[in-house]
Amino acid sequence: MKFKNLLRKKPIEAYTDDISTSELKRTLGKWELTAIGIGAVIGGGIFVLTGVAANQYAGPALALSFVLAGIGCLFAALCYAEFASILPVSGSAYAYSYGTMGEFFAWFIGWNLILEYMMGATTVAVSWSKYFVKLLHLSGVNHIPLWLINDPVTAKEQALKLGIEAPTFSINLPAALIVWVVTYILIKGIKESIKTNNLIVSLKVAAVLFVVVVGVAYINPANWQPFIPEHVVDSKGVGHFGLAGVLTAAGIVFFAFIGFDAVSTQAQEAINPVKDIPFAIISSLAICTTLYILVSLTLTGMTSYTLIDLGAPVASAFDGVGLKWASVIITIAAVVGLISVMLVMLLSQTRIFLNMANDGLLPRKIFAAIHPRFKTPWKSTLLVGGIASIVAAVTPIEKATQMTSIGTLLAFAMICVGVLVLRKKQPELKRPFKVKYLPLVAGLGICFNLLLMFSLDSATWLRLLAWSAIGIAVYFIYSARNSNLNNK
């Protein structure tokens, strides 16, 4: 294979053909697209990661960490929005890279987007399982075997803490089953999926507002002092608090923003993608950032950051002020709300696979097979759901979270590079949405995302390298030979 073939680009004109020949229904308006973005973003991050970030790194300055993470995501979001206005097709970062940086880079990005979407859905499924089990406990169901609700690693850790014998076999059954429920909803069709998503998003946003409205009456301003606790270093040499701690917390809560780019994968089902995709990307990110800041201020105001629970920080904060009923509502909201995150993540993954299959990089018979009645990529959805359910059943949440983050950060950085390349090489293209001060915005986006990538541990990097090596092998064995561009 010639080296130049690695850099062959899909002509911009070809995207127009993809749009005109798409079998997918155009049913999504700008607010439905915004709801998709919100549905993907608000989830496990706000309900789980806020505890660790505030208790161990940022203190009351958790709100500032959310601001920093939101600004960093905004750089990538603006680049996504410009791309989406030029190339209103499904495929997200994969499609944008194919038209600007070449086939190999597009494949590499598409392969690693699996870490964002499918692995992200896996992460949320495991988080959902934890809240579901907590809800069962609140309902009086307390004697659930460890081996039935935990992956093997977590089951052993829990058994050690309880001083009991570790189970020889363990599976997170709730996590696996909820993935199959979401898969069934997706196969039924985009319209049914969006109706479900819109309902859940409404409930989820209402729950977040509930936290703020009810919790504000129990805020003690003394808990915000000092706003940025003094920097300390523990016995292991790990730094906590201070400005460095605020930055570390920003990297942790970054996971809470993952998903806004899922909007761009729905372009071929949008009624007016050129205008509505950029609007939905930016508005969903702005809404979620605002909600996160309000929740973090409420959380750290209700209870001292030193007392915040690491497992269920928001619900526990209400427990701490005697509002048990509110804790129950929040737990129910988490159980219901996390479903919409999985819905959007798996929906986005199948649309990226559909785009790659239509380009010849994946087998069309599987990944581009559209159901004659439901008009959805049903074979791909079944495959993705099956793999995600297996991974959710046996993977610890921290490992899944790290892999999701590094894959997403890589995609964000590449999008910032791609929009710079396209602006320079094809300045004549019509851009309904155009980023101002692009070199600065894209440059900051690249630096921010690479900085967060390098802050992740070496084990995560090794897993990324191994995953990427598998992807490269698949490309040279199958994709490069079957590419539409190779057969022209």
Compile the SSE list and pairings.
Elements: H1 3-6, H2 12-21, H3 30-41, H4 44-58, H5 62-86, H6 92-100, H7 103-138, H8 146-149, H9 152-162, H10 173-188, H11 190-215, E1 232-233, E2 239-240, H12 242-253, H13 273-302, H14 313-320, H15 324-358, H16 364-367, H17 378-394, H18 397-425, H19 438-454, H20 458-482
Antiparallel strand pairs: 1-2
Task: Please tell me about this protein's structure.
With 488 residues, this protein is mainly α. 71% of the residues lie in helices and 1% in strands. It has 20 helices and two strands. It has helices at residues 3-6, 12-21, 30-41, 44-58, 62-86, 92-100, 103-138, 146-149, 152-162, 173-188, 190-215, 242-253, 273-302, 313-320, 324-358, 364-367, 378-394, 397-425, 438-454, 458-482, and strands spanning 232-233, 239-240. Strands 1-2 form a two-stranded antiparallel sheet. It starts with a helix and ends in a 6-residue tail after the last helix. The model has no long low-confidence stretch (mean pLDDT 83).
